[in-house]
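Figure 2 data, in text form.
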Amino acid sequence: MRIAVIGAGTMGNGIAQVCAFHGHQVYLQDVDPKRLEIALSGVRKSLGRVTRDLDVEARESKISETLARIEAGTDLTPLADVDFVIEAVFENLEIKCQVFEKLDKVCGPDCIMASNTSSISITRIAAITSRPASVIGMHFMNPVPVMKLVEVIRGLETADASFEKTKDLTLGLNKVPVEVKDFPGFVSNRILLPMLNEAMFVLMEGIARPEDVDTVFKLGLRHPMGPLELADFIGLDVCLDILDVLYEGFKDPKYRAAPILRQMVAAGRLGRKSGRGFYSYPAK
């Protein structure tokens, strides 16, 4: 299958890697050539990790074969020949709608158009296209090469054929597809983000220090990461965006973002990617 991935950030390059690793031809598109360069370098490093159990010859062969299946570019013209496109740009409705307006014009009539959104309505995205039956959600988890789950979200107009094709692709990537209806936050983030948000309220109210909040979850609840560590890993700006989507979608005050989260995002403390969030991360 010929697959295009739109957006060469963390999620985009992970999706491109997994698709190419499992034999698909991939076109990785981004408006920033530098980001594409960084993405391909990141894919190479990640492949080194996921193939570490192979012997040296098999490992190098698998890495070379996978990289050879990935073409990168800033142009949208190659999308006319792809069978499936996965959008992985910023978690912002306006930006995603702009992308899908372009995809609608350039992609072939039989192309399935998926969004990797983690919270935004697939129905709203699909509505700005001329083919809502071909629009679907594929919410991969981070890091994509490691995490097995993909939430497959059906918009109100998503056709059964589009769902089945997406489900088959997901299984072929050695992932586990879970069918989810199109409600804000879907399943994972509707449950996860309120938990992270409450941990931020606990911190803001002075009930415990960040490391102690996280220790309670790791040692008391057997979570691999504490909620504040996880928020830093996701990106505090992403957490805020998702909470705002939940709040706007349900009009329920339980989704109101903690003031400390808005303050940290305003200050540029976005977590691991900025070097500072609830914790500090020394530059590599």
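Caption note: The two ends are 37 Å apart (CA to CA).
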